[in-house]
Amino acid sequence: MIAVERQQCIIDALHQRNVVTVGDLSRELDVTEETIRRDLDKLEAQEVIWRVHGGAYLRTPTNGGDVPVDTRRNMCTEEKTRVAKRCMDYIKDDDVLMLDNSTSVLHLATELKSSNRRVTVITNCLAIIEELTGCSQIDLILLGGTMNHSSRDFSSTVTQKFLDQFHAKKAFISCSGISTASGLTDYNENNAAIRRKMLLNSDVRFFMSDTTKVGKSMIHVVGELGLLDYVIVDRPVDQDFQDALEAHHVTFVSCK
Fold first, then answer.
1. Does residue 102 contact residue 186 with C-beta atoms inside 8 Å?
2. How far separated are the first and last CA of the chain, in Å rounded?
3. Cystine design at 107: which of 13, 48, 52, 84 (Cβ 3.0–4.6 Å)?
């Protein structure tokens, strides 16, 4: 099978499943994982897919634009858990926290659940509410609006109006891309607006992610790098990116 045929098979698989892994494609197409990675790199360069650690998903999934939260939650789990554990070092008793609907932040909620921190959580993410329900030491505030059933969150203009009523000590967000050229960006307009408002309505602002988001730029702007106080990622990144963060007085934290 030549490369173009193999890449079409990958696209067909993505239309069926929305998300594919390098290992699965290697077995299904009977080629090495390195060959699959080269195919995915080419498809990403053509703006057909988004690469994530260990796999890829369509830029415009068949479910209407969002990869289901349960699918995203199971991607890069080791990296997201490592970042979430480091973020816990910055959370103190009596903090009021803004938590967005990203799965990186959902992993932070899991860490909060197993801790004894007495905090208030303000979120638009139903999965985070479900994760923390029953934790008597955590007060929960769910930002309402129109629910997205695939991502199990609220991110409509109504949600943004709810958000205007609150101010937090700390905000923890992630998004589809962070780069020196474009700052913080997202593929979803409403999510970008919610994340920006969470940052603006908080005293200390954290971006948390695995490094697959670094260097990526999407269509909708969340904000400039200087909107952040901390960038916490799972491993070191190139020095130019770290220098850009330092120029904006943003603290860079690597979990390795």
1. no
2. 39
3. 84
Instruction: Report whether 108 contacts 212 (CB < 8 A).
Output: no
Number of CB atoms found within 10 A of residue 256's CB: 9
Are residue 95 and residue 204 in the same domain, yes or no?
Answer: yes
Q: How far apart are CA 21 and CA 43, in angstroms?
A: 14
Is residue 65 assigned to a domain?
no
pLDDT, position 10: 93
Write the pLDDT tens digit of every residue in 173-222: 999 899 999 999 998 899 999 999 999 999 999 999 988 789 988 889 99
- Sign of the alpha-carbon torsion through 223, 225, 226, 232: positive
**The model's pTM:** 0.80
Percent of residues, the chain, with pLDDT higher than 70: 92
Number of domains in the chain: 2
DSSP 203-229: EEEEEEE-GGGBT---SEEEE-GGG-S
- d(C-alpha 175, C-alpha 207), whole Å: 8
Residue 204 sits in the same domain as residue 164: yes
Cβ–Cβ < 8 Å for 110, 121 = no
pLDDT-derived band at 135, boundaries 50, 70, 90 = very high
Report the C-alpha gap between 194 and 102 in whole angstroms. 12
> How do residues 57-108 score in pLDDT, each as one tens digit?
777 544 444 555 555 655 667 889 999 999 999 999 999 999 999 989 999 9
CATH assignment of the domain containing 10? 1.10.10.10
Asked if 176 and 102 touch (Cβ cutoff 8 Å), the reply is no
Number of Cα atoms under 13 Å in the Cβ half of residue 107 = 23
Question: Is 236 a domain residue?
Answer: yes
